[in-house]
Amino acid sequence: MHALLRLGDDALVLAQRLGEWCGHAPALEEDIALTNIALDLIGQTQSYLSLAGSLDPDAPKTDDELAFLRSDREFKNLLLVEQSNGHFGDTIARQFLFDKYALLRAEHIAQQTFDMDAAAIAAKAVKEIRYHADHSSKWIIRLGDGTSESHSRIQQSINDLWKFTGEMFAADEVDIAGSIAGLLPDLSALKTQWDIEIDKVLVEATLVRPKDGAMKTGGRTGIHTEELGVMLAEMQILPRTHPGASW
């Protein structure tokens, strides 16, 4: 259940962030693209949270309850995905760093036999995330190998967000148990694959990979940045104001 919550929370929080671009993206095509990616992530959220809620041994919960009736301390998403959108380059850099990780993770889950329900969700998600990763990678290359201004700004975006990437590969008891069971990938092996994928795009984009330093962690244990609390207050206001209401 805990592993499924993490998968659902990563998708939900990033979807909400991308949804904030609706009507505000720099071009109509990107407005539609970011919104479609957000919708894909909402679909993944619904599937993972529904499955996680059904496995609660104390009181089964719906996907809506898990999405709208938990506090920030109960969310288990990565700190990376809750960071504010910033400018377009910041959003693309955040998406790129997460997409490469999410795709490798989903590909593993789709092939495992420990939980066939999770495998089916991941198999569908893989098709979507491949598009997401292709979209963000092409933008990284376009901005990095573009003008001097676009190059410097996307490099700064990568630099600023890099400190959140270590959390993706910091294995705890949930990751270890999930890996032993076969549900989750071994994070050390995933890191090696992620490095290769990231470096390949950065080289083509003429960007410099930041040096690994002190990494920010806490999201997996419910210790978040202020960004998440503000986002959840807006996201959850309707169901909390009118609990149990239906359309």
Q: What does it look like?
A:
This protein is mainly α. It has one domain (2-241): Ferritin, core subunit, four-helix bundle (Ferritin), CATH 1.20.1260.10. 66% of the residues lie in helices and 0% in strands. The chain has helices at residues 2-19, 28-54, 63-68, 79-82, 88-111, 116-144, 148-161, 173-181, 187-204, 226-235, 237-241. It starts with a helix and ends in a 6-residue tail after the last helix. The model has no long low-confidence stretch (mean pLDDT 96).
Please supply descriptive tags for the structure shown above.
single chain; mainly alpha; Ferritin; globular
Report the CATH C-level class.
Mainly Alpha
- Give the overall form: globular
Mean pLDDT: 96
The count of domains is 1
Strand count: 0
Looking at CATH, the homologous superfamily is Ferritin, core subunit, four-helix bundle
Roughly how much helix do the residues carry, as a percent range? Answer: 55-70%
What distance lies between the first and last C-alpha atoms, to the nearest angstrom? 29 Å
Number of helical segments with 4 or more residues: 11
Query: Do you know the CATH architecture?
Result: Up-down Bundle
The rounded Rg comes to 18 Å
What's the quick description here?
With 247 residues, the protein is mainly α. The chain has helices at residues 2-19, 28-54, 63-68, 79-82, 88-111, 116-144, 148-161, 173-181, 187-204, 226-235, 237-241.
Write the layout of secondary structure elements.
Layout: H1 2-19, H2 28-54, H3 63-68, H4 79-82, H5 88-111, H6 116-144, H7 148-161, H8 173-181, H9 187-204, H10 226-235, H11 237-241
